[in-house]
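To whoever picks this up:

The parser on our side crashed when reading a file containing two proteins. I've narrowed it down to the boundary between the first structure block and the second sequence. Both blocks are reproduced below exactly, byte for byte. First block:
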Amino acid sequence: MRAGLLLLIKALIIGGLPTPLVAGESYANEEFEDGVAGIFDTLYGLDPSPNGHVGDGLYTEFLEGDVLGCAQLLELLSARICGPTELCWRYWVKFDADFYITSPLRGKLPGPETLGDDGCNDGDPSTVANPCFSARTMFSRDYRGEAFDGETLLGYYNYSLDSPSHRGDLFDWDPEIALLDFGKWYCVEGRVDLGSPGDSNGVLQAWVNGDLAFDDQSISYRRSGENFDIYYGNPSQPSPKTQGISLDS
């Protein structure tokens, strides 16, 4: 099986540093060889493309003035997967060769998030009445004051109990591994483990082309007892030109 857009769902917490792909676990796999819809519950802004990483793939485009490129959602409940504590994901991504990110803006790539009353989104934190988390992949032009042309640094935009009340945390990945050149395909993998309720042992990890790019095993995701889309900037600072991102597998 070639590398693909793949979700690994586990109901038990495991230790150590396993790679996201472990035989015998629960998978949802989509190669996008038969069109756009595939395994997803809802889709917006995606078109089939003959220029995937291998074979066919998908393409989403920000028109000039756009913020939302696409939205693709796989709801675990609709897939009869209830209450997982660990999730791994993998996909291939390529930015257009002439992609441009207006400084100091950031954008988001696919990653896990809870759905509900808009908690852990748009600056609203997790609360007792509305518990939530989010571990969206982030792409950015700037890294500690450096402006990159022709490449982007990946990271996490992470909502947890440790996050500031007005926003999520920005976690940059290792720039030696996760600085992506525009116009090239990369395999992006992630893992989130929500840890034990009430403990700071939640895990958030990331790999690029198989190399570990981020590893934090001290996150508080759950109290004791307790969509998959791509954006550019924000409504007041949208894409300055028509440009796109390719996805596959």
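<<boundary where parser fails>>
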Amino acid sequence: MRGGFVKDFVMNDRCAAGTGRFLEIMAQALEVPLEEMGRESLRARRAGGVAIRISNTCTVFAESEVVSLLTQRKPRREIILALHEAVADRIAGMAGRFPLGREVTLSGGVAKNRGVADCLDRRLGVRINIPPEPRIVGALGAAILAGG
């Protein structure tokens, strides 16, 4: 933001990759409540990081990878961390289209997931601001703009 106005923004408009819906589907595949994924990801990081990589951000293919990793008896929290790393890679790729300052604001439902925010912070190397209610930021901005 500059002077109270958004300078620029980017959002994913092609598929569910890197979105809350992507994480909802992965939570179902892992049989882990969505609300617990961030906490589990942070626990995996504290326990030594991630050796697992999720190579697909396509929801269908990533879900197949998750099922395969579960079949291989990989720890759920490490799979969750790998998913968060994949989401952070996707978001960082979009954010990389713009020159980044020392801090950026992450909005939308994914911002409520501390695991994703932690991975993104590490990936971008900038401070990640998360609004108190990140899910309504877009609607609030539209309402402010509409009000003149």
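After patching the parser it read the second block fine. The first strand starts at residue 103 and ends at 105. Residues 76-95 form the longest helix (20 residues).
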